[in-house]
Amino acid sequence: MGGMDSPHVPAVGGNDERRMKQQTDGIPFVMRILVLTNLYPPHYIGGYELRCRDITEALHARGHEVCVLTSDHHISKADPEPERSYPVRRSLKLHGFFGHPWLGIHNLQSQEQYNNSTLMAAIQQFEPDLVHVWNLGGLSKSLALTLQRLNIPTVFDVSDHWIARSLTADVWLDWWNRPQGSLPSRLLRGVWQINGTRQRWDRTAPTNPVQHLRFSRIYFCSRRLRDITEEAGYPVHHGAVIHCPVDIERFQGQPKPASAPLSKLLYVGRLAEDKGVLTALKALHAVRGRFKGSLSIYGHGDPCYESMLKDYAATYELPVTFHHATPAQMPEVYRNHDALLFTSEWEEPFALTPLEAMASGLPVIGTTTGGSAELLRHGDNALTYTAGNARELAAEILTLEEDNLLRARLAATGHAEVREKFPLQTIATQIEDYLQESLHSWRVSSLPQYQ
């Protein structure tokens, strides 16, 4: 009987007296925000974590009190932990992601209980008005069920496919609720159901099916990602769309004049099959003898795949060089090139690389898979082509090289649009407003019984 006999926690998710007093005094309400996420810089993998940090620090700079609860995962080559004026608690445990092992049900039960107890302790100590959930990839999804059980105002920021594609694969929740499975698993579940083990464990680590999760307050980084999540069976069409931001103070540069030649193309991103890097190399091979420029590739990837790309470039004697750069070096990298090739072939939620390039004054040739279609418009602020089609990409490279006026116009339009619509502080305001609205509109909900 899930949802019963839950451990006592103090009243949270409102701090109503403090809020009412601030509103009565005409003072903007200062939120106490607990940020829950799997990774947090300097230990991070990609843009999701960087955006989480940027928004968290922007909210903190506006006077809101923040506390970050994240995993203890460490990246060996990460920068030193910076000094912060807000706490970052690296105490949660990951499961099956980023090199962490998959656990059997007994060991997993201990980790689920530990993660949920850690969340409960953070709530008791910090007493947040609201929990801001970011990426739960690799973390216990039962944490979201615990928040629902507590009825604490919770807002989900969704900037990748962890709900649409990973939620049902959560080992803990799937093990308890799968209709089939091995005979030993079914027998063990039956025994634990009868003797009260499930009920006892459920008090600290919910075992409900994922269908019991309610995302009453949720926003996505693109309409396409919201649609993908809805298509996966989650009723989230009410969710807001708040696009990803770019730090225009870091990424700044002026579009080059029409008289400037197109000679240095740029690729930035993971070196992986779904990012379309090989398509870029094939396009460069297709324009040999007609395009005299070069391509710089900045990124990391699987060593075998990276080696294949280098072998391809060497075999066809392509003017391609491979590089690595730190985040601090990337603004200069953009400014030292003439155009970005954004070649992604998967359903990008809403890519940061084109935003950074446009803010830096570069024209972009890109695909429109996923949320990218909400940014790139062919012939207006970019040139676009069909993902995976090297011939189309080659044709767009030649178009960009030959039409100087078009190249300058695309760069100027993209530059102005990104700096107007996507600055970090503009997006931070949209998120701040959504969090405030979530507190004011929060309605009592409950976690159903697990059976």
Automatic annotation (TrEMBL):
Highest taxon, organism lineage:
Bacteria
Write one Pfam family the protein is assigned to. Glyco_transf_4
Q: Quote the InterPro entries the UniProt record gives.
A: Glyco_trans_1, Glyco_trans_4-like_N, Glycosyltransferase_grp1
Q: Does the keyword Transferase apply?
A: yes
What residue intervals traverse the membrane?
none
Instruction: Identify a single GO molecular function assigned to this protein.
Output: glycosyltransferase activity
- Keywords assigned by UniProt, alphabetized: Transferase
**Domain Glycosyltransferase subfamily 4-like N-terminal residue range list:** 45-250
| Residues covered by the Glycosyl transferase family domain | 264-413
For this entry, the protein name equals Glycosyltransferase involved in cell wall bisynthesis
Q: What is the lineage of its organism?
A: Bacteria, Pseudomonadati, Verrucomicrobiota, Verrucomicrobiia, Verrucomicrobiales
